[in-house]
Specification:
By secondary structure, the chain is mainly alpha-helical. It folds into two domains: about 100 residues; about 350 residues, no CATH class. Helices cover about 60% and strands about 10% of the residues. It is built from eleven helices and 14 strands. The strands form six sheets. It has a three-stranded antiparallel beta sheet. Strand 9 and strand 10 form a beta hairpin. Helix 6 packs antiparallel against helix 10. The longest helix has about 60 residues. It comes from Pararhodobacter zhoushanensis. Keywords: Bacterial flagellum, Cell projection, Cilium, Flagellum, Secreted. It is found in: Bacterial flagellum basal body; Secreted.
Length: about 475
């Protein structure tokens, strides 16, 4: 080996060591950077590469496990969907209240007020307590409906935000694809762009689970977990229109927007092409879960109205509404009854009514015996009468009907909580595994020590070659 060859080999070794220091220091500096993939420097013998002796930096690559990354993304989508669904059912259960509180306490207060009035039907204070507790009961039903419809509006807003994020994210990934292709064609490093693209895809995977497929020249294609193509040569465009205010009568196509893909309606069911993530969870809340809750509280409101509109409860009615009404009129089957149920103004002094009608009958022509509690007893009997709250429903008292409602909501909340906990635990375990494959600062520091030794050795070769040349020149 000539002295010049030795100098060339040592110089290439110093260059490679310098690049290795850059890579190791970048790894240490970004150890806590979210989405950063540890870099590896790949060296090849320059003689094998056909470029002379020494060593050459072949490439700088990212350490990524595609299979594990895909599992983390899927688990993240499930965790976000579970969290969203669990939060919904928690809010609904809180609005309705647990046994002994909330709606249950309001119904119990009404029952207690009737019992008290039956003991002293001559006291207006006792009759007033019945009217007040009835108003409180209907008010609580109204507030539950407001909560349910607000949750639907919140889900609608979240859908609009996610659709915008999807469109912007897909456009950004398409731009990154083009930049990566362009830089690779000119032999420039693209690892930073790969990091950014991976972070964007991981963020979008929270909205809908994604599958990433490599294409030529560093491009990627994106599909949903159900096989819907989102990005190839160009990204798709999602369409959605937010509804500022939502009420119980609204549904998809009737006041509420559906989801479109390039102008074509797209299924939003949990088993559809966009299922599995936060987007599908919000659509389920808006279009399935919340309407189901609304139907249940409407059914309880209808049961309440029917009990007191029965002639057996108040023979004086003659076909007119009883203590509880549908916005002042007879019962109708349109959605939103829980928000419309109201106390008959005939027994509300503030609305021009008269308290004695609680004791003598809403349709009574004149006050009767102030000591007669017969009619109040019938009102109490209405709460205890076993009737069916709907077709196919069992015969139940008012308290049992409410208990069935609360049990159903509690089961749904518990199921959502269990699902969310399982999904979050799985996502946490997979994330920890992924992080374990990231930057290991101890390993990087050990690597730096080896680089230092290699650098010193190459520098020593240069010093020796320099000394040999000086000696030759002195001869």
């Amino acid at each position: 080996m000539s002295i010049s060859s030795a100098l060339n080999n040592a110089t290439s070794g110093l260059t490679a060591s310098a690049r290795a220091v850059q890579v190791a220091s970048a790894n240490v500096a970004n150890a806590l950077t979210d989405g950063y993939a540890a870099r590896e420097i790949n060296l090849v013998s320059a003689s094998l590469a056909g470029t002379g002796g020494g060593v050459r930096v072949a490439s700088i690559t990212r350490r990524v496990d595609p299979a594990l990354l895909g599992l983390v993304r899927d688990s993240g989508a499930s965790a976000h969907a579970g969290t969203r669904s669990n939060a919904f059912w928690q809010r609904v259960e809180t609005a309705v209240g647990l046994p002994g509180s909330g709606l249950s306490a309001a119904l119990s207060a009404f029952d207690t007020a009737l019992i008290s009035a039956a003991e002293r039907p001559d006291l207006d204070s006792r009759l007033s307590a019945v009217a007040d507790s009835a108003v409180a009961l209907t008010g609580h039903l109204g507030r539950i409906e407001e909560t349910v419809q607000q949750l639907r509006a919140d889900a609608d807003y979240a859908i609009a935000q996610d659709v915008r994020s999807l469109n912007e994210g897909l456009a950004r990934i398409d731009t990154l694809n083009d930049q990566i292709v362009r830089l690779q064609s000119s032999d420039q490093s693209v690892v930073g762009l790969l990091d950014e693209r991976q972070a964007v895809i991981s963020h979008l995977s929270e909205i809908v689970p994604l599958r990433e497929y490599p294409r030529e020249h560093g491009r990627v294609m994106l599909y949903t977990a159900s096989g819907q193509l989102l990005l190839d040569s160009k990204p798709v465009e999602f369409g959605f229109t937010r509804t500022p205010a939502v009420d119980a009568s609204m549904s998809v196509g009737s006041g509420l927007s559906g989801l479109t893909l390039n102008g074509t309606p797209l299924s939003t069911s949990p088993s559809g092409p966009m299922g599995g993530g936060r987007l599908a969870a919000n659509f389920a809340i808006r279009d399935t879960d919340a309407p189901s809750v609304q139907t249940q509280i409407d059914s309880f409101a209808a049961d309440l109205i029917s009990r007191f509109a029965d002639p057996a409860t108040d023979p004086s009615l003659g076909g007119t509404p009883g203590v509880f009404t549908d916005a002042g009129g007879a019962l109708t089957a349109t959605p939103g009854l829980a928000g419309r149920v109201a106390v008959n103004t005939a027994i509300l002094p503030d609305a021009g009514g008269e308290l004695w009608r609680i004791r003598d009958g809403i349709g009574a022509a004149a006050p009767g015996n102030i000591g007669d509690s017969t009619q109040i007893g019938r009102l109490l009997g209405a709460l205890d009468r076993q009737i069916a709250s709907g077709p196919g429903a069992p015969l139940q008292t008012a308290a049992a009907t409410l208990g069935s409602l609360m049990s159903s909501l509690s089961r749904s909340r518990q199921s959502a909580e269990d699902t969310a906990t399982t999904a979050q635990t799985r996502n946490q375990v997979l994330n920890e595994t992924l992080l374990a494959q990231g930057v290991d600062t101890d390993e990087e520091m050990q690597h730096l020590l080896l680089i230092e030794q290699a650098y010193a050795a190459n520098a020593r070769v240069i010093q020796t070659a320099d000394a040999m040349l000086r000696h030759l020149l002195e001869i």
